[in-house]
Amino acid sequence: MTVLSIAELWLGTIFIAAILYISLGQITVRKLRKNPETKNELGAEFASGWDIVNVAQALTFPFLIRKFNKTRLAFLYADPDLLIKHTNKLDRVLSISFYGMLIVVGVLSIVLALVEGMSK
Q: Long-range pairs for 77-85 at CB < 8 Å and ≥24 separation?
């Protein structure tokens, strides 16, 4: 693969992840923010919209987040059991798709940086 084809793949993945991010925020997180039971259980929001990433992470890797919730940093993470209770299959598929794309973008960023560095 050339640097150009990796960059094209990277940009395409970012575009799809951005669409999934907006969709997840509008469809799932908006519903969870309006629910008084889940409103304060979406994790810490460092920047506007960070709770969307917290929700996606909790719905994608609930087994991992349950372990993190046993630590002193539990306030940083969304409650996966409560979120699973208040979401449907579409919400979970959207979350898994978005978070998977986010991971792919991160890996492709590292690969792109390494390939670019080796080509010089």
A: 77/43, 78/41, 78/42, 78/43, 78/51, 78/54, 79/38, 79/41, 82/37, 82/38, 82/41, 83/32, 83/38, 83/41, 83/55, 83/58, 83/59, 84/59
